[in-house]
Amino acid sequence: MTTTTRIERHHYDVVVIGAGGAGLRAAIEARLAGKKTAIISKSLFGKAHTVMAEGGAAAAMGNVNSRDNWQVHFRDTMRGGKFLNNFRMAELHAKESPHRIWELETYGALFDRTKDGKISQRNFGGHEYPRLAHVGDRTGLELIRTLQQKIVSLQQEDKRDHGDYEARIKVFAETTITELLLDGDRVAGAFGYYRESGEFILLEAPAVVLATGGVGRSYKVTSNSWEYTGDGHALALRAGATLINMEFLQFHPTGMVWPPSVKGILVTESVRGDGGVLKNSDGKRFMFDYVPDVFRKQYAETEEEADRWYTDPDNNRRPPELLPRDEVARAINSEVKAGRGTPAGGVYLDIASRRSAEEIRRRLPSMYHQFKELADVDITKEPMEVGPTCHYVMGGVEVDPDSGAAYGHVRGLFAAGEVSGGMHGSNRLGGNSLSDLLVFGKRAGGHAASYADQLTSRPTIAVGAVEAAVETALAPLQRDTGENPYTLQQDLQAVMGDLVGIIRREGELADALVRLTELRERVAKVSAAGGRRYNPGWHLALDLRNMLVVSECTAKAALERQESRGGHTREDYPAMDPKWRQVNLVCSLDGDAVRLTHKPLPTMRGELISLFDRTELSKYLTDEELADFDALVAHAEEAGK
Amino acid sequence: MGTKRQFRIWRGDESGGDLQDYTVEVNEGEVVLDVIHRLQATDAPDLACRWNCKAGKCGSCSMEINGMPRLGCMTRMSTFGETDTVTVTPLRTFPIIRDLVTDVSFNYEKARETPAFAPPEDVAPGDYRMQQVDVERSQEFRKCIECFLCQNTCHVIRDHEENKHAFAGPRYFIRAAELDMHPLDTKTDRKEYAQAEQGLGLCNITKCCTEVCPEHIKITDNGIIPMKERVVDRRYDPLVWLGSKIFRRGQVPQTSVTSGRSSGPVHASAGHGGVHSHAGGSHDPRAEVQTQSGVNWHREVPHPTAPAVDDRGRLPLTELTFDRAAAPSPFGDDVTFPLPPEHLNFAHPTQDEQQH
Ligand SMILES: Cc1cc2nc3c(=O)[nH]c(=O)nc-3n(C[C@H](O)[C@H](O)[C@H](O)COP(=O)(O)OP(=O)(O)OC[C@H]3O[C@@H](n4cnc5c(N)ncnc54)[C@H](O)[C@@H]3O)c2cc1C
Ligand code: SF4
Ligand code: SF4
Ligand code: FES
Fold it and tell me: Considering the entire predicted model, what is its pTM?
């Protein structure tokens, strides 16, 4: 190997790791605050996972139904998350989303319109009113392209004022960060490599925003791309931050299970919002059998009522196909386990027999196009075969709700987007992620900038730490006896998919932890063939240790939480337990080992909890909490008199 | 279960490389990208290839498959015969980094040079009002996934490094068109800018870009041509008047791209010797005279032409049937660039200048 290692050095005020919606919005904010900002992305600029989001961005603008407002949105979000959400994040999100969406229009976004020229909004599972701003079914693309183009326009300003496009904001595309560097408990910079050349790069910066997205690559059937190896989660852990809610993973109920070329690819929920229904192999529309008691009031009981809802939503209850996605996923799982699934292990999603071909093509253009081209399936003619797919991780970096600053013992680290935890509680509503990215991306970027401002001295990076980072990064290339990273990844996916999947059991989870420990030893000895230049084998070898530590957090927390709630279903504890609602499971790193602690959930402010009625709360809260609520209501009535 | 198939994949870096043979298992319903992933997991762990979504949404996996610029994740294996060898090569227009990965920074530079959206000063966020019909025209172009296949295919820069400086390429022509058609954009000189700074005049509407666009954006018909025509309109008003005086519509022989138009899309025939050609240009002498005298006002918007496929419905573009390395030109081997001026239905702006 080479004896001297070249390391490119850069200085920035704010380094944003991740170029998805959250990262780009954070970078825009930091740059607008006058900070010299870097954006780092594992793939090319504009290709981050956000491009894949289809359905839309939830924001209570009230354009389609004027009864919608932030309180209703807040309520829906808390309900969806089964009251485990960080209430303050849910509140900020509901209040600020409309402004973040309108702001996108000033950057050049072109959403679909209502008749009176406003932004159109569509229905989506779990949202009481049509709320998702959308562009056909490529909303994520619109979002990321708009932010990308806003960054370009800021660069054009910089070129005009400073003669250089990259004077104040630079994008490091195809660059992977492998380590955060600290000065005591302060963030001092980030270390990584250019994928293209394999050369190393060191970015010195007092503030780092993590916006690295999710962890789905640890699962066999997933809608997520190779980028989703939980890097941000792992970087945060190693820097001394904490993760919460890691047991909650969202399995999208309707991923394609057949044919293989489209396995894992999602069928957007708007197929159901626009009239698609789920049927088992007997042809039965089975969702009516799976409406849980907590939702009984809002959902139709007969097919006739459900069908009337599409045209007259004010006087009819919603079809059960629009239940929150964990309910739908669980229903599909039960049908398949009961032997009523399709040959490939899914169920049928049928829109072909319910809407005209022309209407399907108009309302779901890219769905139509995608399945036609990818799998030669014509969704206007035949039903799709769908099943649960690992889709989104609710868990993530534990942050201060207002600023996005990471908790734990580290300063100068911020997180936003899918990599942060708390906002969605135990289950995310469709469409809430895109608006989450904007709301908390802006907040994290802004607060990272003011954190950098108030520092009196810049943190410095110890040479030893950089040397260690180089050594760790090169190790897989220098070993030639270890295992192939692809084999290890497959083994990890098998453990997570089979033992820490959608339906969980104590014995399996304990088994998973044993196997993960074995894998940890094998991963420590992984070897990658080839050189440093654009070598995907090497890249995967380095990602593996992140996937592993994050998987451990998930398995540990899943074993600990003895109830079923949202994205965590325990066969041995099938019910929701109000006592567990008061608990967040917090993961931290103790040396090499994952440590799990219990932490009480913050208590909701009076004016927020009063938005719910008592019968609803009684399904989630303990008796003591309900007594407090009654006292609060009595007190308010007293004051009202 | 799976069958064994033959693959030839270009391996190498900027210092050189060659096509390497692989025998690999292919299962029902797989796409080319699946096969590349299988190779990475087995025979070639360091085979470099970009991808993200595996769903045709991110535009990362652009490559040339049997010479055709395509997305690897959108090319089904079932479109090839059981015994066919599938040849995969990197995008030819951009410098090679390694294997199937090329340096596409050219595109990002051009993106940065294209003037951004200019929002109306006096409309507050939240007060934007636009009608669906008005946004739809721009929305078509905003479907672009930036796969850069059109950029790779455009003959103005494919094999013409020297043009790259002056030519932004189809992706950025539609970006300009999108902003030009944006109901609330306040910049009024997008067309002139495209002509003067983006090199729109170098485009001679061959439509090759439209043909490879995986999003089926009508790059030429809906983007480039409207941008061109109005630029020209403004600059040559008197001539438009003269033109319409002398020739009445329908009396004038029309220029055609490959063939006639009355019957809709035309299937190219053996007349082309099996070589795919849609490089544009007229073979009608009168139209050519007009072309040479500046602009052919009676050029009708060329109709989309079907590629010249063989009797199995495939393009005759396999590497193996050719006598040279690297992919053949998707424009047909009877076409050399630059095209002779008489084959262009738009004249280069500098040529116009000379007449004045
Ligand atoms: C198929 C699909 C459909 C979806 N549909 C919807 C929807 O309709 N509505 C909705 O609200 N949400 C939807 N979601 C969820 C939503 O798209 C994601 O949660 C969201 O885009 C995450 O955005 P992000 O900014 O957090 O991260 P991403 O957009 O994923 O970006 C992560 C970025 O971090 C970079 N990165 C990661 N690790 C590193 C590292 N080590 N070094 C450097 N860079 C790194 C990556 O390169 C990337 O640029 C969908 C998700 C999927 C997969
Ligand atoms: S029409 Fe032809 S010349 Fe014009 S941009 Fe497209 S490929 Fe290039
Ligand atoms: S216009 Fe079409 S071919 Fe060109 S980059 Fe966009 S999606 Fe690709
Ligand atoms: S991988 Fe995204 S377009 Fe092919």
Answer: 0.83
